[in-house]
Every structure is written in C-alpha cells, then in structure tokens.
Amino acid sequence: MSMDAAGLGRGRAVAFALPALVLIGVFLIFPAIWTIYLGLTDYRLTGLTAADPRLVGAGNYMTALGDGRFRNSLWLTVQFVLGSAIIGQAGLGFALAWTMRDRRGPVRRVVEALVLLSWILPGSVVAFLWIALLDRDGGTLNALLGTPGAAWLLDHPMLSIIVFNTWRGTAFSMMLYSAALENVPPSHLETARLAGASPLQQLRDVVLPRIKGHVLTNVLLTSLWTFNDFTPFLLTAGGPEGRSEVLPVYIYNVALRGGQLGFGAAISFLVLLINLVFALAYLRLLRDRREVPG
Amino acid sequence: MRLFNRPVLIATLTTAVLALPGCGAGAPAGDDGTTLIITANAISGGKNSVSAEWIKQWVIPRFEAAQKAAGRDVHVLFQPNGVGDEQYKTKMALDLKSKTGADVLDLDGIWVGEFAQAGYVKPLTEVGGAAVESWEGWKQIPQAVQGLGIFDGKKYGLPQGTDGRVLYYNKELFKKAGLPEPWQPKSWQEILDAGAALKKLPGVTPIQINAGTAMGEATAMQGALPLLAGTGTEIYANGKWTGSSQGVRDVLEFYRQIYAGGLGDPKLQQEAKGRDKSFAEFADGRIGILAEGDYFWRAVIDPKAGVAPMADRDQVVGYAKIPAMRPGTGIRGQDFVSMSGGGVSVLNPFSKHPQQAWELLSFMFSAEAVKAQLAGAARVTSRSDVNTEVLADDPMLSFVSEEILPITAYRPGLAVYPQVSAALQEATADVVSGKTSEEAATAYRAKVEGLVGGPGNVAN
C-alpha cells in the first residue's frame, strides 16, 4: 500500500514537473548549450564558414578579451546600468514614490498615470518618440530649449539612452516603492518625528530598514533588465562609432550585422555568465528574505 | 480526484502548445493554385518605391494573367522591405539559412559570392532547370554586366543593370560662390578649392563624401573606393589586399582635409540615418558637392519618384566625373575614375516551385517588363535592347553609360570583401572623428591582416 502511494507520488511529481522540464529543456537548456558550442567555432552568417564551421576553441574568447570594442562595450554597459537602472529608475522611482506617499486624489493619480504611460508603451514606440524629441533637425527638445541644431543623440549618446531608459522604467520602481511605503506604519514615522528626527533621519532609520528587501529586489531587477536591454539600438544603433554600443547592441552588431555568429555566441556566453551573477544575487536575496521572518 | 487529473491536463495542454507551431509551417494554404513570393528592398512610398509599385501594379497582375491564359492558377505575393542594405542582407541570409523566404529575391551583386559559398543560393540552372539556358534574354545582357551575377564561373542571378559614380553639384550654389559652370575638377585639390569657395555661403555644407560605419557599404562605394582608385590603388589586386599603402593614406588624408577642415559635416557621417539626411539636405540646396551613384539621380532627387524629390533637378543639379588624385594617377593611368555595382535577382533554391519561380524571374527580365519598370524614367538596365531605347532621353544616364562605364571598376567578388570594406569604413570614421591619417591607416592594416589570414596576404 505504502509502495503504491510512493509510486503514485513519484508519478505525480514527474507529471507535474514534466511540462516545465520540457519547456526549460527546449527553450533554455538546448539553446544555451548550442550557443556555447557556436562560441567555440568560426561560424558566420554567410561565406564558407556558414556551410562548414570549424572549431576554434577559445579563439573567440581570446579575441573578445583583447578587443577594445568589447571592453568599450562592457564599460558603456556598466555606465548604462549605474546611470539608468540604479540612479535613474531606482533612485527616481523612490523619490517619486516618497514624494507621492501622503498624497491622495487627482495629483497622485495624474502623476501615476503619466509615469505608467511610459511603462505600458512598447519600447519601439518610445524610441520613436525620443528620436523625434531629440532629433537635431526639428526635434522638440531643441525647439523647447532654443538650441537649434544641437545633436543630442550624437554628442551625448550615452546620456540620451540613459535618460530614455530611465523614463521608460521609472514607473515599475515607483509602483514597487509605493507599495512598500504603504507598509511603513505612519505611527512609527510620527513617533520618530515627535522624537525630533529630521526627514532624512526618518528615511534612514525608520523607512529604509523596513523596505530594504524591496530596494534590493528593485535594484537587482532593474539592473538585470537594463544590462540586457536592446532598445538603445533603436535610438542610436550603437553609434556614433560605438559610443553607445552597450553589450546587447554590440552582440547584435557583430553577430547579425557583421555576420560573425560564432564570435557573437561567445560574447553572448560571457554576458550569460555576468547575468548569472545577478541571478544568483537575486536568488540569495529571496532565500534570505524567506529565512528572516517579519 | 481533481488534483490527480491536473497533471494530465497540464501535460496535454503543454503538448498541444508545443505542437502548435508545426501547424503553421509551409506556404499559405487554402487553394489548389501555386503561390510565389517576390521580395526586394523596396516599399511603396519609401525606398525604391518605383520598383515596389512596378512589382505590384505591373509584374503581378500580368504574370498571373499570362499564367491563367496558359491554364495555370498562379498567385504572386510581394513582400516589401524598406530598410538599410545591411539589415536587408541579414534578413535574406536568415531566411535562406532556415530554408524559407521568397521564391524570387534581390541581392546586391557583391553578396552573391558569400551567399553561394554558404549554400544559400545555387546556380540558376540547378534551380530553374533547362529553361534557364535557353532564355532569350542572355544575348541581350553584355558579358561584363552578366558578371555581376556570376560566381566561380556559374550564373547565380540576373543582373538588374549597373551603375556609375559621379560628383553631383548644385549649380545655384556654385553661381553664388563664383564657381564655374559646367564644373569638371581635374584633381582632388580642385574639389577642395571649390569646397573652400562654397564654405563662404551661410548654411551650406560644401562637400559630402560618405565616411564612417553608419553609412555601411555606401562609404566604400561612394567614397573610399573611388578615391582609392584615384590613387591608382585597388583594394584587392594580384591576390593581395591593400594594407596601409600610400594610396590608403592619401585617401584618409583627403577625408581628413574635408572633415577636419570644416568642408564637410562630420555629424552627417555619424548618424544612423546620415545618408538619407544628406540626400534631403542636397535636395534642399544645403550641400554643394555630393559623391553618389546614378541611383541618387533616378531614385532620390527624381522630380516625381524620388525620396527627396527636386522639382528643378534638371536645371539645378550638375554632374562631373570623379577626378583621380592628380591627372593620370588613377587606376590604369586614368584621369578620372568610378566604381560600379548593381543588384541581381536570384531564385530561392528552397522554393517549392522552382520552375515557376524561374518563369516569374525571366518574366521580370523580359524587355517589356524592364521597360515598364523604368516607368518613363531612364536607367542603365542590364538589357542592351532596352538601353538603346531608353537612355537617349536622359542626358545624365547617357553620360553614365558613355563616359563613366568605360572608366569604372568593380569590387572583388570575394566573401571576405565585406569585412575588409568594414575595416576601411572604420578607418574613414577614425579620421572624421579626429585621428591622423597615419594612425587610421596603421589600424586598418592590422585589421585587414587579421581578416585575410595574415600579413602574407596583404600588400603594402
């Protein structure tokens, strides 16, 4: 009887797990293994090596690490994550949520609607809007600032994509922080205020300890999304001359526009390794949150 | 009981979801007839609009009617694209790599070699069968022009025609700057001198010669390669690629003089849409001299069909041959130089109806169809019988046919060429963004050595 129950339990477990395992296997593990394999070859989109790729071992990795363009791209991606995900989306999102926390009624609703609008629009649509905004000939921003002919996307490509991505992603952070701030009992803040704590002290000593988990989750998620974001391609295509070529754009440019599929796969694998660091940090964070009650 | 059933349900649903994509494979189903698809980098109201209209309004209805008359039910669909050349190339390569895509498609002639090596395209006779060799059109297409679609001695595609490069100039701006008309510079210095005179006009960019990587192959074809030919250097000659030769350094120095000397707009070279913007600026009378192919005349500033139409094109726009660096320094000792290329149409070797696809392709290259494609305008087509009829009416295209084609040169049809070209584009970008021509040339040489298999394959 117990044997049957155990067998039934195992069968059930397998039946439960099978669909997920099939999906993960087909859409995640197989492509990942295939990418690792391609990264070891000189496979190209066209030409002889498209038909007959050769194994080049670690050749692509050596080329990448010795390539100034790859290092430039990595450095730009770090700037993008720091500027857009951490200072921009997480920072601005918190500032907006903090400013709006006690407000009710139309002001809050208008701000939320405006911020949310940026989040629900598809990236390609937003990119199109920003190109129209930043264009040097007839761009709205130049008309507003009275700076005809200023080429924002060319002279400040990284700043442009950082601001663009901040605008797109702040809504998520703001909503997350708004929800988190709801959980800070007003009485605690009131007590701290009566005890003479400045607003900064209230924030540091009362609010932040209570929403620490939300902050970490938010920073990790926005960093991960920004690290992998391809929409800067729609604004600048990595230009001018590589000055906004963040990693996903770099991979697209070398692998698809340049046809170097093997090399592109190798870089993708390096990016996957970096992403794993983010992912492990995220998992660790979730586990710690579960272990610490309250 | 309910719980017990759920895994089964999930597994069933998953299987169904996984199986779904398989249902969509294959050609559009639904009737007994044959469906053929044509694709090109053309779209109504945008890039190569005339070609898109011709395919939709002329080719498809007439071909379908002709097939119906012969008792066959054939439907033809057009898949438009209006994207950059490199994006289009990627799309075609990915389509063919996955053994899908249109039955008849356009490629740049220079891609034929690398597509053939990858097995994405096959010789026409292998795909279309015996009907290919007996086609009447072959004897109308000169051997040199057929070469655009030939790789390793085999015909892979039908050439749509060829082209030539000139210097366009704005006669009104020239008049204001006190420059002569007609204008025919005999050296690079005379171009720079004209640029210096044009610089005095407010709001005018004197010279626009494509540079940088944002322009892609346009930088090579409209700028670096004709200039290189003007120094007597070929990018590939006698089995070797040119490295940091004197010719390459001279070309880069010329770029530096233009862009560091305030004669060109470096920003125009860096923008993703820079080439289109330069077209619009020329059409607005804001650029004095612009190096381009005859495509510019017939598809960009054409008063009716152009993407940046100039109503007064025939009165305002002049054209001149591109001079060698100095008289006699060009390839073959020429005083003037040009580069030529052209598109070809190929058959998809994975087509389900290869014979019908060839019928469609050869129909598109019949004299009647080629004439219809011109829609009253002139173009150097691949067919001699059509050229003699249509070029007489257009002085610019006659100029290309008579004066430019005899002095032109072609790019090497080797699979590594696009990467060497990209390295050359990067070298021009380097000088436009402020590096010295020596630095750019040295970096170029290092890149080329890596691309072509070491210094042994590079000439100095």
From TrEMBL, chain A:
Record keywords: Cell membrane, Membrane, Sugar transport, Transmembrane, Transmembrane helix, Transport
Keyword Transmembrane helix among UniProt keywords: yes
Record-level GO BP terms: transmembrane transport
Record localization: Cell membrane
Domain ABC transmembrane type-1: 70-282
Gene3D superfamilies, per database record: MetI-like
Keyword Phosphoprotein on entry: no
InterPro entries recorded: MetI-like (IPR000515), MetI-like_sf (IPR035906)
Pfam families: BPD_transp_1
Chain ranges passing through the membrane: 12-37, 74-98, 110-133, 261-283
Protein topology in the membrane: Multi-pass membrane protein
One Gene Ontology cellular component annotation held by this UniProt entry: plasma membrane
Principal subcellular localisation of the protein: membrane
Signal peptide per UniProt: none
Similarity section: Belongs to the binding-protein-dependent transport system permease family.
Identification of the protein by name: Multiple sugar transport system permease protein
Organism: Streptosporangium album
Automatic annotation (TrEMBL), chain B:
SUPFAM superfamilies: Periplasmic binding protein-like II
Ranges that cross the membrane: none
Gene3D superfamilies referenced in this protein's UniProt entry, alphabetically: Periplasmic binding protein-like II (3.40.190.10)
Pfam families: SBP_bac_1
Keywords from the named record: Signal, Sugar transport, Transport
InterPro entries: Bact_solute-bd_prot1 (IPR050490), SBP (IPR006059)
Keyword Transport in annotation: yes
Domain of life: Bacteria
Cleavable signal peptide: 1-19
PANTHER family: ARABINOSE-BINDING PROTEIN-RELATED, BLR3389 PROTEIN
Protein name: Multiple sugar transport system substrate-binding protein
Species of the source: Streptosporangium album
